[in-house]
Amino acid sequence: MPYNKNVTFKRKTSDFKIEIGDKVNLWNQPNTNIVNLYAEGSSGGDGLVGTTNDKTLSYHLVNNKNLFFENKIVGISNDFIQLQILIYRDQIQTQKNESEAYDKWINRYTKPFNPKTNWELRFYTNQDVKLNNPQIETITKESLSKYYNDIESSIWLSDENKHKLALEHKSRSVDIEKTLRASFTGHSLEIKNTKQEDSWLYLEVGTI
After folding, report:
1. Rounded to an integer, what is the distance from CA 94 to the centroid of its chain?
2. Cβ pair 149, 122 in contact under 8 A
């Protein structure tokens, strides 16, 4: 962003008159990269004046949240229409959306949680790791924001001496959420049962 380029459309026969400098309407055919051009003020399909196959333009038309589009005809022939297209993002709205998403994420993981049932944590390793009284470790609530883009790293296993074990945390998001919320609420986490299958370790987890 921004997108600023001239796009060539194959001209279609139409009763609508178009001129250089005119603004037109863009419409993406569903589930295709075909973009149709309609004369401004037309309705339905009667105003079709051009068409093109453009993957990038089609993508932006479909994924248009917080985007603004400007266009004008810069060239016309019997066969083609040259359209200048400018696409840019509403930075203020984008920042607002990102801030709201972050606040929602923080609230999701810090909401008090009193577990009634157990859940599962999963770990993966391609090494021979000795499990001698493993302990579930988590980050603190105060450091949660540092893991916004890496939430899997917020939980790990340690041995009885608090040394981190060489296991890669691969739990489902719903189980990560339960683990962190329980820990942040003040519950002590306890491994109720373990199961190993090939390189995977499955833990049944609850609270004391």
Report:
1. 14
2. no
Give Dmax over CA atoms of the chain in angstroms: 82
Amino acid letter at 7? Answer: V
Q: Give me the tens of pLDDT residue by residue for the chain, a chain 208 residues long.
A: 578 889 999 999 988 999 999 999 999 999 999 999 999 888 767 899 999 999 999 998 998 877 888 999 999 999 999 999 998 877 787 788 889 999 999 999 999 999 999 999 999 988 777 777 899 999 999 999 999 999 999 999 998 888 899 899 999 999 999 999 999 999 999 999 999 888 999 999 999 8
**Cβ–Cβ < 8 Å for 75, 20:** yes
Distance CA 195, CA 18 (A): 70
pTM of the model: 0.61
| 3-91 CATH | 3.30.70
H-helix or E-strand spanning residue 107: helix 91-110
Domain spans of the chain, in order of start: 3-91, 102-207
Q: Determine the Cα–Cα distance for residues 162 and 169; give it in Å rounded to an integer.
A: 17
